[in-house]
């Protein structure tokens, strides 16, 4: 509407005199009749009135494009001056700006032609311009591994993946506010806040919380139940979809997704459902010395970690699916990946990093390589091979047997002690 208003104002400047009159709704009958005829009749040849169909908008899209280019130019200036100073030592003519660039450049460096900032929390952060920042925000927020997180979480995630630009927090908050799906499916709290009573495991993957999400829309193979389990220490999530959940499915899920991947846990917290409180599941846990802990139906907060995870997964599925809600089984792996690669507020790290010791490589690092993905390229691999060839001679010398070295030393010692003799020419006589 802003572009249409600007178009009208620019057009009115061409007239010497003009007036604007408001037409009542009752006096718009002919206009609405013409619009109805053009929209309702499928056979355009049967209409005697000439109809002009306008396929393109009357307002050009140049204004949006110019806005992006202007912002891009503004964001590029903060990197261009620093890059120019690091490459050629050239500073701006203004003394204050030159002093500012000289001070800022101390925290930046050029690696492989790209500008990186020395970070306090990680080795280097790749500096991005406006278009690159928009790409990172879009990919992290609604891409393959995006979960439509909030502004603070989105900025934290971009920073933890190895990116930097001066207005990260501001841009992330503005981007989330413009997301239509985030506005539609934003949670509305109805319960007053209480003091947080965190429950953490003694070591990673020692304590898991399990729960069954309410019946969803029937998907492929009539799958409508979601079995979810969360580690209390690292917040790692495992989930699978089932058409019906029985105790044998729960036993198989615990064996395949928890024990075979992360070892035997100490405690499993669940509700009093027949799938968890059955004799078969209790005997299975008893054989592996796993303690079963059950939450009461009147106080589900005792298994609050599972309840919080369920809410996050369901909200992420709603934002991804919109109208195609029966495809939630196909979107489940992507939602789990996004959850595992998003930093959590309690730990400050991603569940993937707490589980494996480093962050996962996500699509943004393929489109815009960071310092760790740049380090694994072919050039570095060739350099490493060259160093190995340089060290090959030393390594061969180190592999000589000590007896060979001793015999070599003895032979040299005997040679040094011996006297050199020369044969005289023998004269056989006349």
Automatic annotation (TrEMBL):
Residues making up the signal peptide according to the UniProt record: none
Every Integrase catalytic domain range: 200-359
Pfam family, one: Integrase_H2C2
Biased composition (Basic and acidic residues): 400-412
UniProt feature, compositional bias: Polar residues: 413-424
InterPro entries per UniProt: Integrase_cat-core, Integrase_H2C2, RNaseH-like_sf, RNaseH_sf
Entry GO MF terms: nucleic acid binding
GO terms for biological process, alphabetical: DNA integration
Annotated region described as Disordered, given as residue ranges: 394-430
Descriptive protein name: Gag-Pol polyprotein
Taxonomic source organism: Vitis vinifera (Grape)
Lineage, top ranks: Eukaryota, Viridiplantae, Streptophyta, Embryophyta, Tracheophyta
Gene from which this protein is expressed: gag-pol_26
